[in-house]
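Let's practice the habit of predicting before peeking. Look at the sequence and jot down your guess about where helices and strands might fall. Then scroll down.
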Amino acid sequence: MEAVVTLAGEGTRMLPWSRGLRKEFLPLYDRGEKGDLVLKSVAHFVVETLVRAGADRLTLVVQPRDLEFVRHYFSVDPAFVRRHRHHAERLTDTVRLYRTLRALEITFAIQPTMRGFGDAVLRARPHVGAAPFYLHAGDAVLMEPEGPSVLRAMAALRDAEGLDAVLLVRRVEDPRRYGVVEGRPDGRFAGHRRLRVTGMVEKPEHPRTHWAATAVYVFSPAIFPALERHRRRAHPRELELTDGIRELIDDGGRVAALVLDRAREWRSVGSPTGFATALDRTRRHAERGSAPRRGRARARVR
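Done guessing? Here is the structure:
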């Protein structure tokens, strides 16, 4: 399945640290293959999560200045392994990453200027084509227990009912800081509570619900013309993904959401406190041995 990861934001809430450094490559904890604690970048976590959910073709959306760094991080480097073979015990999880990368066909899309999350998604359109796809922001992680992935459930729901979009939402105390999802209960799917989505508003002053969208989605290609329609009509300075989702709904599109349950956590590193919490939570998960085992690789990187 296709997947898109956005790595092109400016990270202004993390200044001055983020001046020249990408928040998506901040370190988080995981349990290594030998059972010890290891550090992985946020983007590394995201890619492994998508592979676990069945992704085998990946588009990374990056700024021009970051292309070579990101390409290098997500490339297999046998020479590196050879150079450090005298420390073979330190290479276990690097080799594990290489197995994951060999399972993927990776391409890059360039966002030359920062014009919003929706614009970043549009940049991936030539690579995604007419296929449904996962979308995952590169600055947040989904922590799940062993067992079925909620992302797989999202993709299965979209496929089963031919939906235009499936969102993952969580209940928050102060939804004014998030994209707020409006809808009504619609039973369950694959063990998850389900909502029929009727609207979505970005950071409303007076939110109607406590449902906040996490930055992980499954879309049909209908999201692309929806984003373009909003841009032509409203000429926004920054194109938000929320605008495209609202366009889908207003145009009669069918959008659903699954509710994040208590066994799972969504953590963003987009602010200093968010990063501190994510670092602590991933350490606790890794120490308990509940961090997910992620996919292995069989194909190629190009």
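How did you do? The two ends are 17 Å apart (CA to CA).
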